[in-house]
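This part of the workshop introduces the protein records we will be handling. A record pairs a protein's sequence with a compact description of its fold. Comparing a sequence with its tokens is the quickest way to learn the format. To make this concrete, we reproduce a full record directly below:
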Amino acid sequence: MHIGGNWKALYGAARSGDLEQLDYWLKQDIDLDYQHNEFGTTALIAAAELGRRDVCERLVARGASVDVVSDWDGYTAQQAAQDAGHTALAAWLGAQPRRG
């Protein structure tokens, strides 16, 4: 799996909502649940905090786990969305299948 710069590019696309770039990076072999030590969170959690449901849907469809807890603040994607006031997105994330 590629991490490093490739992960940062995927993370940037997720935060910015650049779906074309996100789709490109989702085709690469990148660990979607990785948390870079500079950010302490996943691309899914960052997108959820920003209310980017389209990004969240793509990440979850490609295997990003909704169960991952952010190293930065201890939030899951659902909690991040809820705390930021994105209640519909939080409800959607809460309805996604759990791993384990």
Summary: The helical segments are 4-16, 19-26, 43-49, 53-61, 77-83, 87-94. The chain has six helices and no strands. The mean pLDDT is 93.
